[in-house]
Design brief:
single chain; about 400 residues; 2 domains; seven-stranded mixed β-sheet; four-stranded parallel β-sheet; 9 helices; about 25% helix
Amino acid sequence: MSEPPDVVGVGAGAVMTEFRWTEAGQARSARWRSESGSAPTAQGIVAGDTLTADAACRLAREGHGLLWRGDFQNARKLLQAMARRVDRRPQGDPPRTSAEAFQQHRRAQALRARTLGMLLLPFDADHRVPLRRAPDVRQACLEAHGVAAEPYVASLRELQGLIGAHEWRKKGVEVPALGARIHPHYGVFTPIRAEYAGLAAKAPLPSRESAFDVGTGTGVLAAILGRRGVKRIVATDLDPRAVACARENLERLGLGPRVETRLADLFPEGRARLVVCNPPWIPAPPTSPLERAVYDREPHAARVPVRPGRAPGTGGGRLADPVGPCGAPGPAVPRRAAGGHRSGRLESRGPNRRAARPSPCPGCGRPPLLRAREGDHVALAPHAELFVSRANVA
């Protein structure tokens, strides 16, 4: 039995281990890189231009990692053909409830990601892909991974995500509520659907003295508060990539002197009259670092107690409860905290037909709404209310 590979953490969520395969009768190995945190397959084989999509899907389902040695563009076409075959596979009995439909969808997505993630590419130490007709992906890989110390192996599907993230970072995303573009980094939630930003832009502010932006991501909410005249803002995130991304965006918008970015889990030290947060709102396990912005098996942001004049964690009311309004597991639904009251509601609908008819809540089946309560403590999340506790947060 082979010995377990060495595991080396690289970046936020990244995992590097030894990937082993046999080529030309010789045992070989290279570093394995996975931003999703998946381990390398136990069986690696060499694949080339003669491999069919049916054979590739069968080998992938059997747990074989397919290290590509053929033409890069042929590998891309093979991945597309594999995706079509995976999507045609039956998903079992029809779901009886929206919760079952949600769970079935998540299982299908996990199987799809696992199967398509088996098509692998070699990378040189400078992030170059040493294959015929391979594009220059060095800058995209450098932005996501940093400097590589040695050659490695990674999935083609993950590389496509890196390339897409590089384009978003270069071009930016227009945020109408901000009147400017936000440039997301790889692994940081992209505000393509920015209705929550619109709510933050129009919600009444109880104070413009200070604010916390908890889970800042790209820094879009901190930027909106800065544009609205909040004098001092502390933006926190537990992902170093997000902190760097927010800092870069805020500096680009000229808000650097007003907004401080910190690496922290939820609240920073000190007090603020206003706290904004767009937390994960679906209680399900994330399958990648990026999904942590949406999925959380046990949303800990929803369990932070808030009491007037006291620090979070010392008792008192809750920001939210991780159950749907129907009582079934679902997105976090805010409840009244100590000192809080309902003073109003703001709603936001999608800008197009598809967005205006969003998918139902997996817990209760109702369409998600963006709601708001005025006051000092605000949490922004689809299918959740913006909760306020008339309290300073210490």
